[in-house]
Amino acid sequence: MARDLDEARRMRYQEVIQSFTLLDDVFMTVVFQDSLPCVDLVLQIILDQPNLRAERVITQDTVKNLRGHDVRLDVHAFADGREFNIEIQRAKSGADPRRARYHSSIMDANALPAGVDYEKLPESYVIFITETDVLGFGQPIYVIRRMIEGCSNVFDDGSHIIYVNSAMADTSTPLGRLMHDFRCAQPEKMYYDVLAQRTRAFKQNEEGVSHVSALWEQLLKEEYEQGREAGIEKGIEKGIEKGVEQERLSSIRRMMSELQLSMEKAMDVLAIPRSEWGRYKAML
Question: Which of 25, 76, 135, 183 could form a disulfide with 260 if both were Cys (CB 3.0 to 4.6 A apart)?
Fold first, then answer.
């Protein structure tokens, strides 16, 4: 029975992996992990700097704040003395302007060693790639910098915040083609070979699929344990059935928030029967 359950889980993971795009946090992580060419492509197109070359990249990098909230950066890269954070955000709440400000501040706080002059603080870029137009002005890309009121001059403190609206995938432009590839689940339909090759490796190569599945299993275990604790508490109050329901709701919410999954994908991975999806959508 255990073997049958494991096989069923493995098959479900394979199906879900085939539907993944680069807007799915867990899949983007494995595609960009240790892949400087993928990072180069994204930064070159978004910043319009074709000669930019990353020297180092860390995915899911937790940056500590000893006196406050830690930050986990989806992609943390370094190039030409500059520092970059690329974030994938499906939910509008995850791309709040104050979150961008906080990411920028945490990067700065960890970039300057004690006793080093402020002029040595590197230029920093926080880039949010969003599923929808979260800023709402109908632009494919938003470049935010501080300005001096009363004139049009930039207050050049070296910090940059950029929002890329993947919903505007105009394939006549390099940025539009890049956003098409971020939303595309089929590598053969991608425009950029470097992304297509990496995507294909993790979807069609058995070792690659196993790698994604292993990471997925680890994340699911973490989500399950957190959800199980919440479910048990609710179960004591309202009965076992209600506890299971609350456990599922908690897991769905965390997977949407922390793993950047859509509601449907979260319920699919949790093996919630499709006949119950409508009820959970209403409760969420």
Answer: 25
Question: Which residue has tokens 């910043």?
Answer: 47
CA distance 43 to 25: 18
Q: Which two tokens stand for residue 31?
A: 């595609």
Coil, strand or helix: which one is 33? coil
Last residue of a domain, one of 141, 176, 203: 203
Domain that residue 231 falls in: 207-283
Classify residue 51: in a domain, yes or no: yes
209-268: per-residue pLDDT in tens? 666 766 656 655 555 554 544 444 444 444 435 555 666 777 778 777 767 778 888 777
Residue 2 lies in a domain: no
Instruction: Tell me if residue 102 falls in helix, strand or coil.
Output: helix
As a whole number of Å, the end-to-end CA separation of the chain is 33
- pLDDT tens, 42-95? 999 999 999 999 999 999 898 988 777 889 899 999 999 999 999 998 877 789
Report how many domains make up the chain: 2
- Element spanning 255, H or E: helix 240-258
Residues 199 and 212 in one domain: no
- Antiparallel, parallel or unpaired: β 141-144 and 159-165: antiparallel
Residue at token pair 């969420």: 284
Domain boundary among 203, 219, 248: 203
* CA atoms of 244 and 271, how far apart (whole Å): 13
Do 42 and 173 fall into the same domain? yes
Amino acid at 74: D
CA angle in degrees (0–180, nearest 5) for 211-103-22: 35
8 A C-beta contact, residue 87 and residue 45: no
> Which backbone phi and psi does 56 adopt, to 5 degrees?
-155, 145
Residues in the chain: 284
Instruction: Please report whether residue 28 resides in a domain.
Output: yes
